[in-house]
């Protein structure tokens, strides 16, 4: 199975590959619960996977941005190793995984922006009613750098945290409507992907949320001057085991993101990893490197709360 998964995560990693990986894992491990968060703009199911039955809920969210779909592959690879070790009753980084799964629940959404990831991987689908609009917004048929969802909304600017402030900035950034990146949408949570995730988080009782992006080898854990209790100690541990630098988001990156929403509206610790170093999209061949950098942090994150 490791070889099969490696082919999936190391290849093009589009929506078909994501679903193939999710099915292999959920068929193989009965304790891995698989459902859908909701459907994307283009009607694709967004898989969410749950491990464990404990009260404390830890969330791992990958691929808000289409051209950063390597983070989805990274989370599949993490799930694959976690499940194999948990099934064998093993410990890792000094943690007994059976105990972790009794006391905690891990929720993993490898790819939140399933449409954007597929568009960045394969281009806009020619048989879609959105094709002409997507090409118009993108300005070309090369979608390699596409970050937004299928309506041209940047999901990580669509959360209800600093939305109005960012909206005022948009014209100065040359953003007037839907496009490949940085357009925040008409209203907070206007998109099915963000709306469903926010409702899911509000309905449940998340303890902490970790969101993966690329790139920069940095960790964000504050929103403006806010930082929930316990976040500092966890951020320091995450920085230590990744070698990443603790930083505060600057400019446009400081508004409307999931980490901002979790800190400002839910009052819980939340972290953004900017994984790897280079120019987006990072080549899929960087996956082993990204996994080596983040592996200990991904495994030990639940034990920090
Ligand atoms: Zn990103």
What does this structure look like?
This protein has 305 residues and is of the alpha/beta class. The chain has one domain: Zn peptidases (Aminopeptidase, 3-Layer(aba) Sandwich). The protein has eleven helices and ten strands. The strands form two sheets. It has an eight-stranded mixed beta sheet with strand order 1-2-6-3-7-10-8-9, with helices on both faces. The chain is globular, with a radius of gyration of 18 Å. The model has no long low-confidence stretch (mean pLDDT 96). The site of zinc ion has 5 residues, from loops. Zinc ion binds next to loops.
Q: The CATH topology is what?
A: Aminopeptidase
What shape does the CA trace take? Answer: globular
Q: What gyration radius follows from the Cα positions, in whole Å? A: 18 Å
Number of distinct helices: 11
Ligands bound to this protein structure: zinc ion
Summary keywords:
Aminopeptidase, 10 strands, two-stranded antiparallel ribbon, 8-stranded mixed β-sheet, alpha/beta, 305 residues, binds zinc ion
Question: What's the short story on this structure?
Answer:
39% of the residues lie in helices and 17% in strands. With 305 residues, the chain is of the alpha/beta class. Zinc ion binds next to loops.
Set down the secondary structure blueprint.
Blueprint: H1 2-10, H2 15-28, E1 32-39, E2 45-51, E3 56-61, H3 70-87, E4 91-92, E5 95-96, H4 97-103, E6 104-109, H5 114-122, H6 131-138, H7 163-169, H8 192-203, E7 206-214, E8 218-220, H9 231-242, E9 245-247, H10 258-266, E10 270-275, H11 287-300
Parallel strand pairs: 3-6, 3-7, 7-10, 8-9
Antiparallel strand pairs: 1-2, 2-6, 4-5, 8-10
The structure holds zinc ion (ZN).
């Amino acid at each position: 199975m490791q070889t099969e998964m490696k082919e999936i995560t190391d290849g093009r990693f589009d929506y078909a590959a994501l679903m193939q990986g999710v099915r292999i894992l959920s068929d193989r491990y009965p304790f891995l619960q698989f459902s859908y968060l909701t459907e994307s703009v283009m009607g694709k199911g967004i898989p969410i996977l749950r491990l464990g039955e404990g009260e404390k809920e830890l969330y791992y969210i990958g691929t808000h941005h289409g051209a950063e779909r390597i983070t989805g592959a990274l989370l599949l690879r993490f799930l694959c190793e976690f499940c194999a070790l948990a099934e064998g009753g093993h410990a890792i980084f000094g943690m007994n995984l059976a105990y972790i799964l009794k006391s905690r629940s891990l929720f993993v959404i490898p790819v939140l922006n399933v449409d954007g990831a597929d568009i960045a991987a394969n281009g806009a689908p020619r048989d879609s009613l959105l094709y002409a609009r997507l090409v118009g917004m993108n300005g070309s048929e090369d979608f390699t750098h596409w970050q937004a969802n299928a309506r041209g909304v940047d999901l990580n600017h669509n959360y209800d945290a600093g939305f109005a402030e960012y909206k005022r900035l948009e014209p100065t950034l040359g953003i007037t409507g839907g496009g490949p990146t940085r357009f925040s949408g008409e209203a907070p949570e206007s998109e099915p992907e963000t709306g469903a995730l926010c409702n899911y988080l509000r309905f449940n009782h998340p303890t902490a949320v970790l969101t993966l992006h690329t790139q920069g080898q940095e960790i964000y854990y504050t929103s403006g001057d806010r930082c929930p209790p316990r976040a500092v100690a966890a951020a320091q541990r995450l920085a230590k085991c990744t070698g990443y630098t603790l930083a505060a988001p600057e400019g446009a990156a400081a508004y409307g993101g999931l980490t901002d929403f979790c800190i400002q509206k839910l009052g819980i610790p939340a972290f953004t990893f900017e994984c790897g170093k280079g120019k987006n999209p990072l080549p899929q061949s960087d996956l082993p490197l990204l996994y080596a950098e983040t592996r200990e942090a991904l495994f030990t994150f639940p034990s920090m709360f």
